[in-house]
Write a structure and sequence with these properties.
By secondary structure, the chain is α/β, with parallel strands linked by helices. 30% of the residues lie in helices and 28% in strands. Strand 8 and strand 9 form a beta hairpin. The longest helix has 16 residues. The protein is globular and about 45 Å long. It starts with a strand and ends with a strand.
Length: 208
């Protein structure tokens, strides 16, 4: 059985007749990390949205293995600040389902990842009261507390200091080691070296 959990076949996207991405072909395997690099405007966020199923491609197709669970951390999440959520409530969203309430295990998982990302002491603070780095760590916790097969993260460590970046890198490595696939867009050369494979976006066409 193929280890591929997600594939893009000749995928592309046009916005108002302007090509943003063209003829993207890639395969994402379980237990791997794919890094997307490139200058601002190269299409990294657009490609992540295509892969996550948020935006349909205007050409080609994106295929995900049936039953695959995906967690997405987008780059622009300012709308969430308008919600009167505490840090703990925001992270707990990653464990919610429509079928049941949070269990004792769910709450333990939330507490554990908040501890790992040094936000446990902020549990009762509102998101709008946080610094940029604290807010970003909260959103990373919400994504990584999910039981996902694929984690799609758009520049997750851009607002973080060196220590916090190392914490996130350790968590991503753990997810890969336990069988997940991680897809990350980044400007950080260090993050790219952690990846199993790197794709550089240059213009509308990716270069492996």
């Amino acid at each position: 059985m193929s280890a591929d959990v997600l594939t893009a076949e000749h995928a592309g996207f046009r916005y108002a007749d302007v090509p943003v991405l063209h003829d993207v072909n890639l395969r994402v395997e379980a237990r791997s990390m794919l890094a997307l690099t490139g200058a601002n405007g190269a299409g990294k966020s657009t490609l992540l949205h295509l892969l996550a199923g948020v935006t349909p491609p205007t050409e080609g197709r994106i295929l995900r293995r049936p039953g695959t669970r995906l967690a997405l951390l987008p780059q622009r999440t300012s709308d969430i600040d308008a919600l009167p959520l505490t840090v703990a409530e925001c992270v707990q969203i990653g464990r919610f389902t429509l079928r049941r309430r949070l269990s004792r295990d769910d709450r333990a998982r939330v507490a554990a990842i908040m501890q790992r990302l040094d936000i446990a002491h902020l549990a009762r603070q509102r998101l709008r009261e946080l610094s940029g780095g604290q807010r970003q760590r909260t959103l990373i916790a919400q994504a990584l507390v999910q039981d996902a097969d694929i984690y799609v993260l758009d520049e997750p460590t851009a607002a973080l200091d060196t220590r916090s970046r190392r914490q996130v890198h350790d968590l991503l490595a753990e997810r890969v080691a336990t069988g997940a696939a991680v897809i990350i867009a980044s400007h950080d050369p260090t993050e790219a070296t952690l990846a199993t494979r790197t794709i550089h976006l240059q213009g509308a066409t990716p270069v492996a």
